[in-house]
Specification:
UPF0145_dom_sf; four-stranded mixed sheet; UPF0145_YbjQ-like; UPF0145 protein ACFSGI_15275
Length: about 110
């Protein structure tokens, strides 16, 4: 599956637009991470536990988006984006979304 953030894929032609797809993940921050984040807030620096949580969440959202695109019959996703937000004080939502297409190489 080719995934791009652009509208076109160099060397390929879009043969069919199948529609929108997305993958969503909601991750809860643990109390240990919140305590560490509070300490980091006092002294500054990266909160590695949160960085890892967001990276893992993006990968999982991307995997779910690809699974959905396969189910729709696509072989590529164009205009892929990530979005995220907070739910309450302890959860983060991560969404990967884009347009499912079928493509073929330009001869």
């Amino acid at each position: 599956m080719i995934i791009v953030t652009t509208e076109n894929i160099p060397g390929y032609r879009v043969t069919n637009v199948l529609g929108s797809t997305f993958g969503v993940v909601v991750r809860a921050r643990g109390i240990g991470g919140d305590i560490m984040a509070s300490f980091k807030g006092l002294v500054g620096g990266e909160v590695k536990q949160y960085t890892q949580m967001i990276e893992d969440g993006r990968r999982q959202a991307l995997d779910r988006m690809v699974e959905s695109a396969h189910t729709m019959g696509g072989n590529a996703v164009v205009m892929m984006r990530f979005d995220s937000g907070d739910i309450g004080n302890s959860m983060s939502e991560i969404v990967a979304y884009g347009t499912v297409v079928t493509i073929e190489p330009i001869a």
